## 1
Amino acid sequence: MCLALPALVVERRDGDEALVELGGVRKSVSLALVPAAAVGDYVVVHVGFAIGLLDPEEAARTLALFAEAAEAAR
Amino acid sequence: MKYVDEFRDGDTARHLAERIAAEADPARRYAFMEFCGGHTHAIARYGVASLLPANVRMIHGPGCPVCVLPIGRVDQAIALALQHGAIVCTYGDTMRVPASGGLSLLKAKARGGDIRMVYSAADALKVARQNPAREVVFFAIGFETTTPPTALVLRQAAAEDLANFSVLCCHVLTPAAITHVLNSPEVAQWGTVPLDGFVGPAHVSIVIGSAPYEPFAAAYRKPVVIAGFEPLDMMQAILMLVRQVNDGRAEVENEFVRAVGREGNAAAIAAMAEVFEHRESFEWRGLGTVPDSALRLRPAYARFDAEQRFSLTYQPVPDHKRCECGAILRGVKTPSDCSLFGTVCTPDNPMGSCMVSSEGACAAHYAYGRFKDIPVVAA
């Protein structure tokens, strides 16, 4: 039920509709809940609606945190 | 896939596991509840539990919306199709939830009910537009993730003045359920189910933010770490929980900062607030009646409320008497404690709700973990 995945916004269409791409699959979803989303952004898509934006800087920071743990383990 | 694969790296997972093992105090036990079905699924699928030291235990919580949907609500949806002749649209997982009389929505469809699986609430609206002579009901279930789409669809139906569309609203609220778990007798009477902290939902928190968990963490002195659904997110969250317990802290921390903020998604919260209001009480499968834990349509949207439109009354129905879903959802029992598990109750023929969705504790254990229960005997 809670399956939601990060997808790349590739095209904005009429109204709130947008074309997103996820692992090569393209699909039309609604951006009504994330009106600020632009082409090139990653959105979290759930039941045909983008419910949030992904922050690339914060994602990089989380990955850096994992790298730190890996370093500490060595 | 970007933002997916890099959070599934096996080597990093092993390093995180070493950190957890190094920091977990061997003299004590840690029990953390992952509230969300998405986490239950990730733990089972990626073998997260097997990477944890023996004194760190994960307990499945009631955060799978399919699992907590009571029989009586599915019965209402079936009645709409079979007795009222309505087209009932709903999400795929909901179709297989066992209902009364050996039925499910899927079996009611085989009996001639016009029941359709939709991917999105917006698709239900399309069905209503395409069938103006028929009543179309969207059987809406889910936590705060699926609620904003339902709200938007209701707003759209009102704008178009659609005369044949309504919603059977079974949307439920996360913070109320976590609080209820902590208030349940098994947990309140300390000792039977000690819970040292919670892994907070990922996608629900995108919508509601991390702030709603703050009063809860303070009142119950329980740490909450919001985590993404990938295995590394889980491992990092468990490490953060171990650290909080070791430090004696009970704070809300956010591991899923790439998608979750403190305030949540303002547009989604506004849409929900416009269309829905709190129900005084709502029955959850396995948890019983939980006060202020669900939503219903506001009076301004009463004409789209299927319960009012079809004068439905709610009739609670007990679960199968040997089904342990209720105890499993409260963390009191595990799937292998249930005598139906893997025998009469399987994903192909679920008896209880925890076996329906792949995010249910029983279905996840059946798919990925059941052979671990069998001791290996050398030939």
## 2
Amino acid sequence: MDLALTPEQRAFREEVRAFLAASLSPKLRRGAALTSGVFAEPDIAREWQAILEAKGWLVYHWPDHAGGPGWTPVQRWIFEKECAEAGAPILPGMGLKLVGPVLYTYGTQAQKDHYLPRLRTAEHVWAQGFSEPGSGSDLASLRTRAVRDGDHYVVSGHKIWTTQAHHANRLFALVRTDPHVKPQQGISFLLIDMALPGVTVKPILSASGDHELNEVFLDEVRVPVSDRVGEEGQGWSIAKFLLENERGGSSFAPAILADLARLRTSMGPLTGELADRAVRLQLEAEALEMTELRTLIEIEHGAAPDPRSLTTKLLASEIRQGVEALAVDAFGLAGLQLPVERPFYGDAMPTPIGSPEAQVAAARYLNARAWSIFGGTSEIQLTLIAKAALGL
Amino acid sequence: MNLALSDEQAMVRDMVRRFLADRYDATTMAKGPMSPDDWRALGELGLFALLTPEQAGGLGGGAAEVMIVSEEMGRALAITPLAEAILLCGRAIAGSAAAEEWGDRLMQGDALLAFAPGGALVDGRLRGSAAIVRDGMDAAAFVVETEAGALMLVDGQDSGVRRTPVRLVDGSMAAHVRFDAVQAQPLTVPAGMWAEAQALAGLSIVAELVGAMASLLDLTVDYVRQRHQFGKPIASFQVVQHRCARMYTWLEQSRSLLLKAALAEEEARVRAVTAARAYIGDAALKLAEEAVQLHGGMGVTDELAIGRGLRRVLLLSRLHGGGIAARAALAA
């Protein structure tokens, strides 16, 4: 038993470190540090995506047959850890982490050839059309319907909580193609060009004042049948595959630990209850990092994922929320600034009182509440853990 | 990076697990301290020699072996003096004449050494008292850490040693020990060995806690499956499922910090053990409290391993200042 990196892994870490030191401009670092939502804003994200793609490391988590660099699970972890410590932007995951793996796993050759390269160059920017106003945790009850008409589906419905749909030009969506079978069996997975007639995006402003979320209305949108992924009725299995990637595809702890360390620097020395909370969060995050590593190391040595991997999204949500709450408390009244201008790193922002970290703290606190809701609520996660890990 | 046990480590784990499984089940776990005969039998199997450094005549097993053995002890809720007698005192005597006098007997399970913090040297004699000395009634000798921080060995036969029994919450026996001008032999612990001893004793305790957590969760999951109310197993209620799932997250997070501490490089070990103590004690007590709650009335009785497990976890989680002291050390 040991936790030491091999000489090859250490050399790889140095290579990643050197690349990050050379490639992450002050602008990108500042943009990442002052991001108030889950993902970097488009100006920051596009620039960083292009740098990674040029290096060949953008789709580091894809297998080599799909165009990835062929890294092992531990190499991927090293890369994520180094990116987090260097303060790299968090790229939107809808394309890279969600629909990308769906396409190389379930897509036809024509779909792979068309969509994967455009995803990588950011010619296509993806949004996720899963949730509906009446279908959140009970996703299988979704009602957006797709009626076959020759070589097309005619799609009508209403999607909600669509992150960054206002920046996207492609939507992957779950639609009901058969209303007469068990709900899970009547669902299909479609790729929708958002420029098609009948697609309307309406903003939803978050409590923080950020515009991350949207509603997407689909009104008799004609989608070619060739843009269905998998078989008709296979959408639910594909969605489960995708959600497993969303919850467990990469490590949460490195980013939390790095953010906590950066916050500790700008918060200064803490005493009393704040100091105790900071230590507890640090411990939880260190434990989570090891919980994630244990599973990665086992997979690296050929084992199947352990049910413990189901705990990480739940734990990461709570630790993340704890960190943002600590920041608000530690910054005092300065942590309650909530200017309406966006982004926080932009020129239009008023001069921060205290520090830029304090200025962004309240927005980050508010947005972090979504962690325990998106990608399966914490209550859904607990039910999954009880079933898969404990057999209840 | 590799988390698989070596063949030798797996053999040790299986040996300890089999030995304990023959003696402890849900009705006998944590009923009382391990019998001297069983303790001696473990000594004869070579377990204590494995965990003793070579300078003290042992086989020099490291942190991973301490973790593996202690976790099994915890899983059986066995009440033993492993951490203090073997890991702490066994290292305190390494390099001194005391190792020749006591080393073999300690490793064979024939004699116990107990750790007694307290007392001061006055005119070359030890005077004062140690308030609570775990396993102090049965100890053949004491490793004393004086108020000035010196390590000394005191023979339990010395006429100036006075012991008063103190029963602790887990049913183990401690002693209030007074030293009335007793002879104390200075221990010359090799450099770094005492810090190593404290780290390994701390590691052993958190490993026992993780083992105990795993058992208490297993027992609870079994119980909620068979316990029926309102015409169905209470395991079918979502509130019960979620509470069990929470217990599982505490167990896995605890095991992670335990592994990190056991596998830490030497220079990072003290910090990693402190981090494990800072988290695991509280997590284990929360889990034990939940186990009691989910067992209902039976959980608060002395009949089941659950109630007795709570008592054992309470003791282990509060040793050496518990999580409060460990978190304060990390915050400093």
